[in-house]
Amino acid sequence: MFNIPCPQQLNDCGPERLEQFHQVLIEEVDELRCCDSNNTWYEPSEYSLIGDKGTDFVALADNLADIIVYALSEAKRWGIPIEKVFNAVMDSQETKLGPDGKSIWSSDGSKFIKGRDYVAPEPDIRKLLAWHLPLECDQFGTEKNDPRSDSESEH
User: Fold this and answer.
1) How confident is the model over 57-115, as pLDDT tens digits?
2) Contacts of 67 (CB under 8 A, 6+ apart)
3) How far apart are CA 33 and CA 41, in angstroms?
4) In angstroms, rounded to a whole number, what is the distance separating the alpha carbons of residues 122 and 85?
5) Judging by beta carbons within 10 Å of its beta carbon (0-12, 13-18, 19+), is residue 25 exposed, middle or buried?
6) Total number of domains in the chain
7) 73 and 9, same structural domain?
8) Final residue of a structural domain among 47, 80, 113
9) Are both 86 and 122 inside the same structural domain?
10) Fewest 10 Å CB contacts: which of 42, 65, 131, 151?
11) Between 62 and 8, where is the model more confident?
12) Considering 56, 80, 104, which residue would you say is the last residue of a domain?
């Protein structure tokens, strides 16, 4: 779809592409301001659905979906199996619970914070990504320096 490269292996698109994607996300996040009907940037549409505090839920939902589409497309461009990575991150999020099994919130109530049993997602993400690395082979086709050898066989 949209002629986005979809490599089956990790694809290092380089710092220029990272900067381009960064700029796209900045623009999309800035558009969140346009979801507030109290904001001077707000332009109502025939589809607007305004909440009691002024949020246009149609504009917000559309903007959040756009951010997800950009993130999913970018992951494909880099060869990242984002669904599996997302699951690893969500598994990690579940370890942010306190000893009572309840969420621990930051002091301003804006996000969950890490509890004492928190398990970072990066080790699992690395295992997942190792299966998508282009492998170097010797002249006989034997894989050299396979980073997957210490990871689980799931991919």
Assistant:
1) 999 999 999 999 999 999 999 999 999 999 999 999 888 888 888 888 999 999 988 88
2) 25, 28, 29
3) 7
4) 9
5) middle
6) 2
7) yes
8) 80
9) yes
10) 65
11) 62
12) 80
Burial (Cβ within 10 Å: 0-12, 13-18, ≥19) of residue 59: buried
For residues 56 and 123, state if they share a domain: no
Residue that is written with structure tokens 């370890």 in the block: 95
User: Is-contact 76 8, C-beta < 8 A?
Assistant: no
Contacts (Cβ under 8 Å, ≥6 apart) of 151 = 126, 127, 130, 131
Cβ neighbours, 10 Å, residue 35:
22
Structure confidence at residue 145 (pLDDT)? 56
Q: Which residue has the tokens 């894989």?
A: 143
β-strands 143-144, 136-137: how paired? antiparallel
Task: Select from 121, 123, 129 the least CA-distant residue to 155.
Answer: 129
